[in-house]
Specification:
- The complex is a heterodimer.
- By secondary structure, chain A is an alpha/beta fold.
- Chain A is built from eight helices and nine strands.
- In chain A, the strands form two sheets. A six-stranded mixed sheet of chain A has the order 5-6-7-3-8-9, sandwiched between helices. A three-stranded antiparallel sheet of chain A has the order 2-1-4, covered by helices on one side.
- In chain A, helix 3 packs across helix 5.
- Chain B is an all-alpha fold.
- The longest helix of chain B has 32 residues.
- Classes of the chains: A alpha/beta, B mainly alpha.
- Chains A and B meet through strand 4, helix 3 and helix 4 of A and strand 1, helix 2, helix 5 and helix 12 of B.
Chain lengths: 249, 273
Amino acid sequence: MSKEIAVKFEEVSKTYYKGLKAIQLRRLLIDLLKPKTSEEKIIQSLEPVSFEINKGEVVGIIGKNGSGKSTTLKLIAGISHPTTGKITINGKITTMLSLGAGFHPDFTGRENVFLNGTLFGMSNYYLHSRLQSIIEFSELGAKIDEPVRTYSAGMLSRLGFSVAIQTQPEILLIDEVLAVGDNAFQEKCLAKFEEIKKSAETTIILVTHSMEQVTKHCQKAIWINKGKLMGVGEPDEIVDKYKALPVSS
Amino acid sequence: MSETVRKPKISFNLVKIYSEIWNYKSFMLNWTQRELELRYKGSVLGVLWSFLNPLLSLIVYFFVFKKLSGAAVPNFLIFLFSGTTAWLFFNQTLGTASNLLIGSSHIMSRVYFPLEILIISNVISQLINYSISFLLVLLTIIFLHAPISWNLLWVPLIALLQSMFLYSAGLLLSSVGAVVRDLGQIVTTALSLLIFATPIFYKAEFVTSNPKILFVMNYQPIAAIISLYRNVIHEATHPDWNVLLYIIVFNLLWYLFCHYIFNKLRGVVYDLI
């Protein structure tokens, strides 16, 4: 594979089986007593799709709720496995599907920095060296030594973001984390992304509902509708097509 | 620059799996520490429970089983204690294993990391607990003026074999437990039966003379591991070489089986949590 490609999907699909739920004996008994009804049990979350994302690109994935955007992101992240096809990834991935994953409410902000940061694969040693800038970016000050259950939602996402951003990612996956937090925070995050983009060849893939973000920041847009790939290409072009589609379909 | 390929079939490549786990060693350390802190956070006596729990149950077992086994076993207290502390290590680890993946769904669904770490951390934190309560066994030996033998140095090796057994079992139970949600209850029930079916409070010879039953009672892995502890702590001799060899070979096969199943279910687990 060419070293210029960061993410490559080849005929990748994802199917969930409705019947594939965790087995509970209680439910098994109920199912035995009830006559069987045959219904469509397969949910095609993503039909076979193929696309490539180049290194250093900022890519926006758009589409309505439940269209398969997040599934795509999870497949790239490795927290969901493809049903068919092949995904090739070139580079270290950092996922920001939600900020502050693994934060424990009873532990202090400082303790959670290490818990959350190492969950991203960073070492304690490295986090120690970055601690000052993490605390600075999060604007928490002395509150860093208080349990995070006393934090506001804004404080949590600021801390979560400033930890996640320390990973020096080669591929950054973002799932609407920017929707939380106030405007000032969003601006700060976007500025940070611009900084990352300039300093390194970081590929950024974000799922978003904001068409403005896509046309303003992205070099490529991927549009998914009902598990089907509708288009890949210039953000302006794709966003226009997306807007032209009737709401009902 | 690393290239990762994700395909429907997840390959069972142990070198790859463990080199990835190695990269996450800081997380493993922090997560283990968190497990230990959470266990005692908010409890007044804290780590003291590692002593109190086995001590209190020992006192109960001692009075209940003194009549049955006490007369036939010299230094019955040491016999009993070496078995019950090891049993508690089995019991705590197996009892929590089924819930390990389900209980961590909040991080699994958001960040990718090697899931094996959750199982390793659980075993390590329980092992630390066991080490603390093992000090009580040593105190008992000193208190009873029983001989302190060099054979006690075998204990870390036996504990390592026990930890490997529990790590494998944890891989199996945690992944199957995510699919079959009743597994946790089943294991808890099985453990409460197993504590009496395993020769912990008595010697198997006291309850049956049927050679087939005796064989199963003495050579099921949990009983076999406990018998190794008994060799070096209670009988102050070297471990029975045959049993030691059996446990090493069993562990190896058991581990491969459990990790294989865990790996097979990896993809399904993500869809279910």
